[in-house]
Amino acid sequence: MKYYFSRFSFGILCLLTLSPLGSFAAVSSTGIDNESRQQIAQVVTRALQASPEIAAAYSAVQAAEARLTGAGLPLNNPELEAEAENTDISTYRIGINQTIDWHDKRGALEQVARQELLLAQQQYQALKLARSTDLLDAIGRIIVSQNIEELARKRTTLLKRFERLAVKRHAAGDISRNDLELARLALAEAAMQEARSQSDVLQAQMDFQVLSGHPLDTPLQMPHVQAGPATPDSDERLAQQHPEVQSALIAAQVARQRIQSVDRGRKADPSFGLAAGQEGEETLVALSFSLPLQVRNNFENDVEAARAEALQADQLAQQSYRKLRARIAGTRDQYRLMAAAWMHWMDSGQVSLEKRIELLDTLWQSGELSTTDYLLQLQQTLDTRITGTELQSELWDAWVRWLSASGTLENWLTGEKKK
């Protein structure tokens, strides 16, 4: 049994069931919607868990964690030296050298690594959001294409019956040869449309399998939308919390932290050494000190490059935020437009498909409706129903796009409210 959106009232949609004969009847939506949403959430979760791309992003998070742990360790290890010489006089010496992190390079590297970990985590969340959006889009197309395929199959069934009746009426002399050929032509066209709709179902299923790695073997229903998008007052908060914007902002922070890291890294660190040994009968003790002289190159250009990259990252973060604000506002307006169109569609007063076809049959068989008019009105009736299904698909697409733009998709799947 297929489920469709019903009329939108005070931000809440009720579900309508499409009976096997095509009639609509209002039903309680809460239980059905929760079950549908949970089933879709399970499908999306399984697909994400099996995704190599998501697994790779999670490995990047683990790598960033390992780098952060390593960045917290001392930067320089001690150096052990040993020397021995056996000539007329036996000489040996052993010593140790240690380079001192005089400018706290480790602290700067640790700050960069910490921000890089946050960046990897946000990129992981952004990728999950993007792939969840793709999966919901693919699921919606499968459901809608299956609904349209069912209507196309119903069209073929009705026209087969009509063609059989036309043959009988032609044999009885009630209709002309031309009317019979019209019936056969309509049946052939319906068969082609059914084949195209079946191809659309296969294409939608293939697109889902490309994303998930396996076919969609769970019958799903289209859940209704429980509430409309938030008001424009929340756009700034939603945009700032979005994983894409957070990734861009953290990337800018990483770039700023690298300025300090590069600046400290270019500075020379002193090395101290202590050695002890014996030369013949004499005991030797030596202290050493070394410091690179940055005379030929002080690496200041590296710092300037880091500053320019930080400025670039800041500008990209601002652009990301502007794009998200525009996406949130645009998708919200698109959703409201489609919701209004759907409400108008449902308020227009739909006659059940079964009753409409029965009426057309009665008028045709009584001679009050010509074969041409019958086929035309039957085609219009079924095309209108398909148009309604496509409108439902557009409403779903608009809703999913707004969930993605606002970063609330995961909350909707889990039934949680965005904090």
TrEMBL record:
<protein>
    <submittedName>
        <fullName>Efflux family outer membrane protein</fullName>
    </submittedName>
</protein>
<feature type="signal peptide">
    <location>
        <begin position="1"/>
        <end position="25"/>
    </location>
</feature>
<dbReference type="GO" id="GO:0015562">
    <property type="term" value="F:efflux transmembrane transporter activity"/>
</dbReference>
<keyword id="KW-0732">Signal</keyword>
